[in-house]
Structures are given as C-alpha cells and as structure tokens.
Write a structure and sequence with these properties.
single chain; alpha+beta; Rossmann fold; 2 domains; 7 helices; 20 strands; 35% strand; globular
C-alpha cells in the first residue's frame, strides 16, 4: 500500500500528515485543507493507518465514555499531556502532545468516524496547546475600518447557534465558523483574534424555510429526520486565514414567539456562561493548558460587549439589530 503525505500551517501550527490511503487523509483535508503548506521543520506529526485489529489503549485513566450522534460508542482517556480515544470496533487515536506526534488506527470501512471522533479533537488539543483556544460557538465578522470586528454566538445545543449565524450571513456578515471557533489571545506579535474552521452546516429544515437563500446551496445528505448538511461556502467569500478582533458575544436564551429581545449581560455572568461551556476538566485545579484557557476566556469577555438574546421569528431583522450593537 502506497502512503500519501500532506503538510499544513494552521495559524502558525505546522502539521505533517502521513496516511496509508487517500481515504484516510480525506478527513484531515476536510478540516484544514485550506491551510495547505510546504514541508517545514518543527511540525506536529500525524500517522493514520489501517488495521484489522485495533491497538489496546488502556494505559491512561478513563475520563469519559458515551456515544457519538451516529450511535458509535466511544471512550476517552487522558492525562495533561496525552489523549487517547477509542471508537469501539472502529478506530483509535493516541495523541502525545509532549512528543509532537499522534497515530490514528482505523478498520477498513470505518473511515467515516475519523473526522468527528479523531481529527477534530486532535486539532483542538494541539491548537489549544499552542495558545489557540477552542470555543464551541458560531462566529462572524463585519469590516468596520480600521478594525474587523467579530460576533461570537454562544449557547446550549438546540438554542439555534447555526440558524442565528446563517441569518446574519444572509445580512452581510462574513461567516468564520458555525460551531468551531478559536480565540488567540494577544501576544507581543499580534492582537487578540477570533478565527474559525468552516464545514458544511447542520441545518434544520425549518431554518431553510426561514432563510430561502439556503435552498439553492449544495445539500450533502440527511442527519436524522429534521436536519441536512448544507455547504454554505459557495455562497460566501473565503475566510480561511482571516481573523477578527473581539466585538460582541451573544448568549442565546430560549426563543420567543414575538420579537428579538436583547439585554446586556454583566461580565461576571458572561464569563461563567462561556467557561462552563468551554473550559475542559482534564486538570482538576485549572492549571496548565486549562488554566491558560480560563485566562483566555476572561480576556475575551473583558474585551467584548456581552448580551443575552432571545430570538423572535423575524430573522431578517437580526442583521440590523446586531450591527447596531457593534456600533
């Protein structure tokens, strides 16, 4: 079997990938293909290979076990510098942050589990380790010279992050991400920045009815009874390598049947909401990378205007409302 290789530079994190087959490289390309780069020194090395018999991963303490949305059973083990993921009877991932290397092993025919179970958690871990902190939120920006200002949309699952983001994208905002946003705190070399990874969006059929411009975009399969994957990239300008300064954080409350309701949220409550959704509990005392993540969230909240939002039915009015808040 002939291996394939690829190299990437994701906001300063160099990555080298070697895979047994193009089908194994495809999930990585789907996530960061737009960051393709020439080979370079100091890259994090990922090896992806096939095997009929998966390696046993039991040398780290178990942190969590459960199921993916598609029903696959998963076990996650970790310590502060190493992560292990076992997708039962399908794949394993072993990530060594200190050594700068990882290995994914997948059974033939189980390639579809790689993106969600292995690639995305690995990316979040290695980027977090380099000071790019993942926020499970949608994000967009508006160009307002001399600054490009971001809008971060945070909320529990089912509150409508994707619908809100697509509503704003249809009103002139540029979409950074509908689910995976990164915050890079200020350094001596650059200001604090928000940026994202863009994928096809999981969109409810009701959202397509509310936003007719989505109907003409590529649809890529069904998820359950009420959602489809919609690729919004053909309808929007590329935002790869684009970053924006902090502007607004909108925390989504339950919808209401009347009109959009917006209330300022004090910074302490805003930080509690953001941290509860995003600072992971690998390190019990919030030390190391999680301590830095907490500090990053505090910086993001401090430099943003924060609001609670309950969305009404008229999404076409949302763009003007959010634009007024940015001003």
């Amino acid at each position: 079997m002939c291996s394939v290789q690829a190299h990437f530079d994701v906001h300063g994190e160099r990555i080298a990938v070697e895979a047994d087959d193009p089908a194994l490289l495809a999930p990585v390309q789907a996530a960061i293909g737009a960051y393709a780069a020439q080979p370079g020194d100091g890259a994090f090395c990922l090896r992806i290979r096939y095997a009929q018999h998966l390696p046993a991963l039991t040398d780290l303490p178990e942190f969590w076990r459960g199921s993916l949305p598609n029903g696959s059973r998963i076990i996650f083990r970790c310590n502060p510098r190493r992560r292990q993921t076992e997708v039962i009877d399908q794949a394993t991932a072993d990530v060594d942050l200190s050594a700068g290397r990882a290995e994914f092993v997948v059974r033939p025919g189980a390639e579809r589990c790689l993106l969600e179970a292995c690639v995305l958690p690995w990316l979040c871990d290695i980027l977090n380790d380099q000071g790019h902190y993942v926020i499970h939120a949608a994000s967009l920006f508006l160009d307002r010279p001399p600054q490009r200002r971001a809008v971060l949309i945070s909320g529990l699952s089912g509150r409508g992050k994707t619908t809100t983001a697509l509503g704003l994208a249809g009103e002139g905002f540029s979409l950074l991400a509908d689910d995976i946003t990164f915050f890079s705190p200020a350094t001596p070399h650059h200001d604090a920045q928000l940026w994202g990874l863009r994928f096809p969006c999981k969109v409810h059929r009701q959202t397509i009815q509310m936003l007719p411009w989505l109907a003409g975009l590529p649809h890529r399969g069904h998820i359950g009874n009420d959602e489809v994957l919609v690729d919004v990239r053909p309808a929007a300008a590329p935002t790869t390598r684009v970053a924006a300064s902090a502007g607004l954080i909108l925390f989504l409350n339950p919808h209401n049947p009347w009109q959009h309701q917006v209330h300022p949220l004090d910074k302490t409550r805003a930080l509690v909401r953001l941290v509860n959704e995003n600072v992971r509990a690998y390190e019990k005392h919030r030390e190391g990378s999680d301590g830095r993540a907490f500090a990053a969230m505090a910086e993001l909240v401090r430099t943003s205007d924060t609001y609670e939002v309950s969305l009404g039915p008229r999404l076409q009015e949302l763009g003007a409302l959010v634009t007024s808040l940015l001003r």
